[in-house]
Structures are given as C-alpha cells and as structure tokens.
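Example (one chain per record):
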Amino acid sequence: MMEDVNLDDIQLVRISTKDLNRHLKRRGIGKNRQKEVKARRRTLKNRFVYFIYKKFKSLFLASILKPLFDLSISRGYAASCRVKRDEEEENLKQDIHNLDLQICSKVHMFDHLIHEQREIVAHLQKIGVR
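Predicted structure:
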C-alpha cells in the first residue's frame, strides 16, 4: 500500500487513468511522485499481462490469432484489391525500369551514330569530297 497515495497495487492497476490523475491531484501529490506512481502502475500492468500471457499462452494466442485470421477472411475483397494494387504497382515499376533501360540503350546508340557520323565526315574531308 502506498500510504501517501492511499492505493494498493490492485487498486492502482484497476483504476482508470483519468480517475488516477484526478485522485493524485485531489491528494496533492507532486509531479515527481506522480511519475513514480504511474511508472509503478505501468510495471504492475506489464507484469500482470506477461504473467497471464505465460500462464494461458495457448488460449491467448488462439483468442488473438483466430479473430485476426477471421478478420482477414472477412476482408477478402479489400485484401484482394490491396494485392491487385500491389501487383499493378510492381508491374508498373518493372515497366519503368524496362523503359529506363531502353532509353539508355537508345542514348548509347545515338552517341555511337554521332561518333560514326563524325568519323565519316572527317574521312570525307580528308579525301576532299566536302
């Protein structure tokens, strides 16, 4: 029992945050002590949840995972739309990549043709055609 706060551990865990804040304010508890009380409350809640989780792990997982699994099935249309959108996005990214490669290839080909043209012009000037 925390005498200055007038709450034991069970009461501390069960009280709502709003009520706890109101209770601490009414009792004139300072900011630092409030932080300590709230830290104690978090620790107790975490320990309690961990204890329950360890004790009833299989039931806990079944109760958590099954509704999530059911939820994913019930959201079949939304999930399929999401998958389709993701696939389309991936296809578009691949198309962009392919177009970038084509552009690089065309630029390289253009540079090669310019180089060839300059060589031909130089050769023609050398033999006096131009």
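Caption: The chain has two domains: 1-74, 91-130.
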